[in-house]
Amino acid sequence: xxxxxxxxxxxxxxxxxxxxxxxxxxxxxxxxxxxxxxxxxxxxxxxxxxxxxxxxxxxxxxxxxxxxxxxxxxxxxxxxxxxxxxxxxxxxxxxxxxxxxxxxxxxxxxxxxxxxxxx
Length: 119
What we know:
The chain is an alpha/beta fold. The protein is 34% helix and 8% strand. The chain contains three helices and three strands.
């Protein structure tokens, strides 16, 4: 059984950035994300919201986002960028995992008994 030193909750911008640095440091970790697909909170934005000067996503470590198509919804662009980032660095993201299921998932990863928990 693999040992997990760190559990990152959420595969949004902060979670993926944290995962990148953990990976570079050689730390055993897993990322648990509630969403069914990559994109963080951006995937739930209005279709009319686009990336522009006032609304931009900062580059994740090691993979520039590049110029964004300002005519496409930001939800599509950011979701695609996050998915490409996860693939490029082989990040161990497990989804969808939420609430009690997340706690049970962590316990299984750690080899701890899986018992009812309050979240």
